[in-house]
Amino acid sequence: MMELAPRLTIRMRTAEPATESALIERCRKQDAEAFGKVVDAYQNRVFGFVRRMVRDSEEAADVTQEVFIKAFQAFARFDGRSSLRTWLFRIAYNLCVDRARKHDRGLNETRLDANENEESAWDVADDRWDPETLLMDEELAGVIEHGLATMSEKLRTVLLLHDKEDFAYEEIAQTLNLPIGTVKSRLFLARAHLQKHLRTYLDGGNDR
Amino acid sequence: MNQHDLEERLNQPGQQAVQKLVRELPSEELSLAWRSELNQKLFAQTAQKAQRTIWSWLWKPTAGLAVAGALAGVLFLKAAPVTGPTSGEEAQALLAAHEQSSLLLSLGQTTAPAGEDGLPSVDEWTQEDVTQL
User: Which of A53, A67, A163, A172 should we substitute to test contact with B (largest number of B Cβ atoms within 10 Å)?
Assistant: First the structure.
């Protein structure tokens, strides 16, 4: 089963619309095998998103299970107007928001004060922002994860959906019920927030 | 900031660098134990739903029949003739005649010989005699 799962995952990502439609139709009839394939395809992606939206891994695992249980219960009502991916991530987002409100997670989040002059200096003059020279390692990943954790939930959601999950602007707008312009501006601010965090890391590197 | 400007700023090197880093963040995988637990919960959901379906298959027709039976009973009772008392005088006359004949029967051999009191013997009573009573 372990060997089969990755192939199934790959097949789902490149699945033709007809294949996913057939799977959705079977899921609507509470076909457990078909739903199992949906879980195979999306469990790690949903977990990755949820993990960065809630307090810890244990809670993320619980919430991810809740996502799929709710999806299974509600599949008969899934009308196909949005993609399956959009629908699942909408369920995930709503559950994360509920959990965050319960734990009042917003206390640790810092608001971004958009300073246009500072941001434009970063983008234009700083040659450290060469994607080829910035390589991901454990330390850098930790800095980014910390930056994500201190970002407001609204900015973090858009950033994760677009940059990590490759959602298009329209898809994010549909998932979060936002105008596309709002999606883009939140994405911009979210990235700017991470740039601030990374600045400290990079400045520390240059001082060594 | 209009949409065009925003789009340009999103495509600038700093923003693109952050996008690349976020994309490369390590992914976590869920364990087999997690999947097993989810499968159990989904199975429990399916079993509960199947049980509810079975109960509804049993109880809905039964409840329907019970309601239909109750309605039929009510309608039947409403349509049946009322066997209560008729007009007062007739009822009283009939009742008096019945009581008298019952009394006479209970007296048996001690009834007065026919003719002594001007009445025919009980065995000789006719319908007219009863009516006169």
Answer: A163
